[in-house]
């Protein structure tokens, strides 16, 4: 079904070009504590986070001239991907001053707009590190993942996301092809097969690069970067969703054209871009989540996600993804579906996903890519934890918190996803009116079922 010639597994071989490391700003990862739990106790360890390479200053190896400025490459330095990788270096980051990223103990705060000395930064994406050079790899089968979150300062159009993707532990660090690696936040991929990643496999994605017509900082290259994705948390103060996205490829994989699911070929992608989501508002409970809701987004709360296997082992087939919340000392069970054609359910299962696709009239790419079973395989192989804050230059985050598609009847099952207006969420409006928006994640834990809350 998929063209093999367009797919290149992101193996990291020694070649003559390199993705370089700059020395103008020292890289110091902000510390962030993390807890491993077993029944009755949790053990805290001191970890850290690193900033994604896409946000970092990219300049000449011999000086400070920009290799990438605004949303365009300097073609004299980057006539092709290999030469660009040889000429240009990723530098260290001023986390609080340039990017609005701060940590304290177990808490990470990501600010939306930060006015630095030399530039204005919008959004950010960070990864949890095991040590200074390696991403922490999570194996989630038959486990429970828990964190606290404060979304009270996230209005319509923003997304404070926490999720897992099947990145490589070292971020593609190789003896020559990528000298930056996980320390400098390289190797990102997800189920949308994004084309805006500046370096893929240590090579600049500069060839065929088209600057965005509505984002002064972004563009798209010929290559996309695909991998399985488990969205634990995509949310603002109005709406929230959790969504598995299985892929037919293993690990980070470069793609072009149809295999990326570009344009009208969305459902030909090697990854399920839609996923099987559980958004309480979309699933019929309009009062469960939001300001003053059962889960009251005006204050901090705990999010618990459990990955249930058929035989309750770490190697069994994934059969269910459960969700519950804790707020004000009270355990809150997930909302129950109230949609015609879908049996009452409060978790993601194969039956739930199949019924949802039918009831909403959506193509079932989730099942076609192997559903929970294939998602479970990725969880067993291991995934990297990502935390981000972002606005949406494609569809204004309406898929999360409003009526989407905007020309559809909101009464039709699956169309209404939240209370935000259909003209909300435009990046130019959100960046102007809510620059001080932020999200806070804290008390991140992994443990046996029932051990983390």
TrEMBL record:
InterPro entries, per database record: ConA-like_dom_sf, Glyco_hydro_7, Glyco_hydro_7_sf
Similarity remark: Belongs to the glycosyl hydrolase 7 (cellulase C) family.
Catalyzed reactions: Hydrolysis of (1->4)-beta-D-glucosidic linkages in cellulose and cellotetraose, releasing cellobiose from the non-reducing ends of the chains
The protein in question is named Glucanase
Which residues constitute the signal peptide according to the record?
A: 1-18
Enumerate the residue ranges of region (Disordered). 410-437
Pfam families on file: Glyco_hydro_7 (PF00840)
Extract the CDD domains matched here. Answer: GH7_CBH_EG
């Amino acid at each position: 079904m998929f063209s093999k010639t367009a797919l290149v597994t992101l193996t990291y071989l020694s070649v003559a070009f390199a993705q370089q490391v700059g020395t103008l700003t020292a890289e110091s990862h902000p510390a962030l504590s993390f807890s491993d739990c077993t029944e009755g106790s949790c053990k805290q360890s001191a970890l850290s986070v690193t900033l994604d390479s896409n946000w970092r200053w990219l300049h000449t190896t011999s000086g400070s001239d920009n290799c990438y400025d605004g949303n365009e490459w300097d073609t004299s330095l980057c006539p092709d991907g290999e030469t660009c990788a040889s000429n240009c270096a990723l530098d260290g980051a001023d986390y609080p001053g340039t990017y609005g990223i701060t940590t304290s103990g177990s808490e990470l705060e990501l600010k939306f707009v930060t006015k630095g000395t030399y530039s204005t930064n919008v959004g950010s994406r960070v990864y949890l590190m095991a040590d200074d050079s390696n991403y922490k790899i999570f194996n989630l089968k038959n486990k429970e993942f828990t964190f606290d979150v404060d979304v009270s300062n996230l209005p319509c159009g923003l997304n404070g996301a926490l999720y897992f993707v099947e990145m490589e532990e070292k971020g593609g660090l190789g003896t020559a092809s990528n000298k930056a690696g996980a320390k400098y936040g390289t190797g990102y991929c997800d189920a949308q097969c994004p084309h805006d990643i500046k370096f893929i496999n240590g090579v600049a994605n500069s060839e065929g690069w088209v600057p965005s017509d509505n984002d002064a900082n972004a563009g798209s290259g010929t290559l996309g970067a695909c991998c399985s994705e488990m969205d634990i948390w995509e949310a603002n103060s109005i709406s929230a969703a959790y969504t598995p996205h299985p892929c037919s490829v293993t690990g980070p994989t470069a793609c072009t054209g149809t295999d990326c699911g570009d344009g009208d070929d969305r459902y030909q992608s090697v990854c399920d871009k839609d996923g099987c989501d559980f958004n309480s508002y979309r699933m019929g409970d309009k009062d469960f989540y939001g300001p003053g809701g059962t889960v009251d987004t005006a204050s901090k709360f705990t999010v618990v996600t459990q990955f249930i296997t058929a035989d309750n082992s770490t190697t069994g087939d994934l059969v269910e993804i459960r969700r519950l919340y804790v707020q004000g000392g009270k355990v809150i069970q997930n909302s129950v579906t109230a949609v015609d054609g879908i049996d009452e359910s409060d978790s993601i299962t194969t039956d739930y996903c199949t019924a949802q696709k039918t009831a909403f009239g959506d193509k079932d790419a989730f099942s076609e890519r192997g559903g929970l079973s294939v998602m479970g395989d990725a969880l067993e192989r291991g995934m990297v934890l990502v935390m981000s804050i972002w606005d949406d230059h494609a569809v204004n985050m309406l898929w999360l918190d409003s009526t989407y598609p905007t020309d559809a009847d909101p009464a039709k099952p699956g169309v209404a996803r939240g209370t935000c207006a259909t003209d909300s969420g435009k990046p130019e409006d959100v960046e102007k009116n809510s620059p001080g928006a932020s999200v806070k994640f804290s008390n991140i834990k992994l443990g046996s079922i029932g051990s983390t809350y």
